[in-house]
Amino acid sequence: MLPVAALAAGPARAQGPAPGAGLTHHGYAVLDGGRVDVRLTPRDHGPSAVPDTTVRLRWSLPLARCAQPLPAGCARTGGRDVMCRTGALDADGWGRELALEVWLRRRPAEVTPAVDTVWAAGAVDRGRGNDRQRPLVPATGDTYSF
User: How far is the C-alpha of 146 from the C-alpha of 118, rounded, in Å?
Assistant: First the structure.
């Protein structure tokens, strides 16, 4: 598991006005039994590139207490939270897809993963509403897009 500080570490930036960015996350989630499968791809609508970003997935229900394999650059940071570095984003560009599977403590009828950008290497997103997603995912085994 990575220390939380390692997820937000990035190159030092020169002083001056903060670059602007328009960050969003697009993807889908599937809940089948107690397992949640999430795929998401970050996007920067610009106007500036972002050298690194970190996204937090906060589940509406607690994660299972067992060890859960997570992708490189991801770490469990609480009973309901996982943070992942999503990397550099070009202005008006897409990042790499993040694929994540987690187990919940129970087999719920539904779950809501909250997807938020928590760090953007000093870039300022003046329209934060579109980088926060809260899809409702019923336990149907179907794909729910966000």
Answer: 18
